[in-house]
Design a protein that fits this description.
Length: 370
Amino acid sequence: MADVPYSPGLEGVIAAETSLSYLDVEHEQIVIRGYDLIELATKVDYVRVAYLLISGHLPDAEEYQSFTKQLTAFQAVPQQIYAVMEALGPSTHLMDSLRTALSALATFDSALDRKDEENTWRQSMTLLATMPAIVANSYHIKNHQPIITPDPALNYSSNFLKMITGRIPDDIESRAFDQLLTVYSEHEMPNSTFTAIVIASTLSDMYGALVGAVASLKGTLHGGANEAVMKMLLEMKTPGQVEPYLMNKLAQKERIMGFGHRVYMKKPDPRAVLMKESLKQLVAVKGHEDLYDMCVKGEELIHREKGLFPNLDYYAAPVYYLLDVPIDLYTPIFFAARTTGLVAHVREQYAHNRLFRPRVLYTGPRDLHP
Ligand code: ACO
């Protein structure tokens, strides 16, 4: 064991083979099955990207139609799932509600443990199709509001946003939300995806793999950062407050949420660049110029002081805000969008499985006796 290199946090370690995605940091490109994620986000919709990730190719017109039909057919969430969510305590974090709902959903799958292509496709459809209703209603349940059911007449993103806000979004809002879902859809091997494939590698079921991924994504060093960013922006209030607020945090050696990334430490996150543009476009129609100015000032200051770039969560947070999404839902929506990448990774893991079982660098005592 002595000659095996140890890398805390598995930094720089190649942990898996995948044909799904790759972060080409040098060329500032996120490769998704051969395509550039940012180009996909600007040219095709989230559902097409989901199909690409799960099946391996972009759908033709017929495949797209059949895929959207399947998503509609699988939309219904068993009432018992909502009953389980309603039984949770008053201080429930919505990521914990989502984690519990996914766990409960597994118990309604009569072919839970089958790993063949057809069955894991069906399970992927179930997860992708039910996620908007589960996520949106986790908020309504917690706030004692009526459950909102999916509207099959709307496309995936418009329906998702409508179930959250209660109103049909206009085209600009729907497009911005769809782009947000797309940039969150897949990102190579973050902690949550790693968690999911580690669980899948024991041949545990797909739902269980995603339940683990929810717990991982909840953390503020990962998906939870988007909620923290918005709280920080609201605390700063005005562009004039950005400098004193952030300088004070830096003086106290606090981490600034929405900055830095294990892989992009020295390069911009291309997703953040696109979300910044999306924010600019939303501000042009909805106002809130101050919010945009605060974000830009914060970006400039942290780059000046720490040399760090904003990550996706930094600009996704104000985009959510302008779309009237409640802050508690920012991380659950990140997870909902990532479902497509996660189920694709789990399917890939089942198809080429090798159990994950690393070793340790033992630092404890030896030769003790009771
Ligand atoms: N604020 C202040 N300093 C930072 C930040 C930050 N957000 N991020 C990194 N640094 C500094 C560290 O203090 C460290 O400096 P030092 O070498 O002087 O001690 C250096 O940059 C390297 O930081 P590490 O912690 O070693 O980097 P790591 O790869 O472990 O962390 C992480 C990556 C967790 C994302 C980190 O940048 C962070 O905490 N960011 C804030 C949380 C956040 O935005 N998370 C979202 C990630 S993106 C996503 O999940 C979609």
